[in-house]
Write a structure and sequence with these properties.
InterPro entries: RNA-binding_CRM, RNA-binding_domain, RNA-binding_YhbY, YhbY-like_sf. This protein is 38% helix and 21% strand. It contains 3 helices and 4 strands, in the order αβαβαββ.
Amino acid sequence: MKLTGKQKRFLRAEAHHLNPIFQVGKDGVNDNMIKQIGEALEKRELIKVSVLQNCMEDKEDVAEAIAEGVKAVIVQIIGNTIVLYKESVDNKNITLP
């Protein structure tokens, strides 16, 4: 799924008030984390993931690994925070412009 610039701006505005609900630490991205993030995206559609200082991997690599694992779209990487979006099958809340 590819997002237009307008859709990304809309999602960034929606994500502004959200707090990160997952943290990636020194262990990096693992299968259990990807499974949990996938479930959270199904419920919420839009989440933030925080990359901690002690994470050995680059934040871009972490974002790619998570997005690939859960089939989500990276909306934004700002600082050490990654914003991810995936359209929900059952709990559709966000209507893209």
